[in-house]
Amino acid sequence: MRFESFSFSPEILRAISDCGYQDMTPIQQQAIPAIRRGQDVLASAQTGTGKTAAFALPILQKMVENPREVQNSNARALILTPTRELASQVADNISAYSQYLDFSVLTIYGGVKLDTQAQKLKRGADVIVATPGRLLEHLTACNLSLSSVDFLVLDEADRMLDMGFSADIQKILQAVNKNRQNLLFSATFSSSVKQLANEMLVKPKVISVDKQNTAAATVSQVVYPVEQRRKRELLSELIGTKNWRQVLVFTATRDAADELVKELNLDGIPSAVVHGEKAQGSRRRALREFVEGKMRVLVATEVAARGLDIQGLEYVVNYDLPFLAEDYVHRIGRTGRAGKTGVAISFVSREEERTLADIEKLIGQKIRRVTVPGYEVGNRDLLLKQLQKRRSFAKKQERGDNAGAQVIAEKNMQGRRVKLGKTTQTRLKKIK
Q: Does a structural domain hold residue 318?
């Protein structure tokens, strides 16, 4: 099905053509008609399925059909996202879709001076894309009113709840115009998401286009067993021998990300890093240089797992497996987007075998394992058996230690009784 089927305005169709969109994705085919009809929507779709266009295009069309001047310190559409990266990406997409319309789009997130944003908010905007925490700061400071909001979108709702934004979202919901259309998009329908949906949505159209916690079919997954201390060496070798040109690498910590970038640059592989301690300008510059091909590798922490949208990204590397199995799906969703193919590589050390088993259980499939000569590690099944034996031995030893400690305590008590008895006898002799 093509976008022309839904009678978008000529300006929007022209912008869609400029973006290179032709056929609709499944989430767009189901969500756009429901939103155009004015229904609340509860939608589940994995990353890379075109969900931003699924909610943004019908909202823009409804704003075209019902023109209204923007009020000061207000907005017609409010979109909440969990991270500043995702907020920037969504705002950029909406700006592209509305490039031939006289609509204004404003982003509000942390890392930017509050006063600077407050000045822009005074003029109001047709669309505001914001992170919950910073938006609430502006509401508390009376820099913003949400009384004119016609459309409220929660994008990546499950991620926002996981990041602890539940209380902020509740306060924002209280401040938003009650006569609004609500759209909630989430990668998963967790119990917390369902509870939020029950509170927020009115007779919603429920859309689910993908099986929960599954990777896109366009992503080829592979595991490289390797000792933790040799991961950097293996990464450099694979990038060099396989001539990988654009690689997004995820590490577990900021320190690990910084150290890896340092080592890769020393190996002659141009690399940059994005994580929470980097200034927003630095993160934008790193992303821009990576997209432009100036950097071959972009190293990121979990903060970028859902916020980055890099067109045509071929390779995602899990240098360290994520702490949560669910985050694996979101990480590898950075590649294989919009119908294109991609490769997801995971480096797995001995210590991470248990996490890998959890991931495979979650996605319902075994991931192909490739061993690189010279980087072999011990047999996986044998390792798991050894871990089980160690745990069993530790429990037995703990029980034995407790029993031994009790015997020693009893002997000590007996010794004290004997000693006290001898002391008493000695004192009696002296008295006599």
A: yes
Element containing residue 41 per DSSP (H, E): strand 41-44
DSSP H/E element including 105: strand 105-108
**How high is the pLDDT of residue 306?**
56
Q: Are residues 46 and 116 in the same domain?
A: yes
Helix, coil or strand: residue 245 = coil
pLDDT of 394 > 50? The answer is yes
The CATH number covering residue 161 comes to 3.40.50.300
Integer Cα distance of 30 and 311 in angstroms:
24
- Core vs surface per residue 38-53: b (16+ CB within 10 A) or e: ebbbbbbbbbbbbbbb
Q: Cα separation of 59 and 182, whole Å?
A: 11
Instruction: Choose the final residue of a domain: 151, 180, 208.
Output: 208
Tokens matching residue 64: 């075209």
Residue 345 gets which letter from DSSP? Answer: E
Give buried/exposed letters for 270-302 (b at 16+ CB in 10 A, else e): ebbbbbeebeeeebebbbeebbeeebbbbbbbb
The rounded distance, in Å, linking the Cα atoms of 145 and 102 is 22
Instruction: Express each pLDDT in 29-41 by its tens digit.
Output: 999 999 999 999 9
Does 224 lie in the same domain as 324? Answer: yes
Assigned token pair, 89: 């990406």
Who wins on pLDDT, 399 or 193? 193
From 170-174, 256-260, 328-332, the region with the lowest mean pLDDT: 328-332
pLDDT tens per residue, range 155-168:
989 889 888 899 99
Domain housing 287? 219-379
217 in Cβ contact with 26 (< 8 Å): no
DSSP, collapsed to helix, strand or coil, labels residue 90 as helix
Domains contained in the chain, number: 2
Q: What's the length of the chain?
A: 432
133 lies in a domain? yes
Higher local confidence (pLDDT), 84 or 385 = 84
Cα–Cα dist 169/412, whole Å: 62
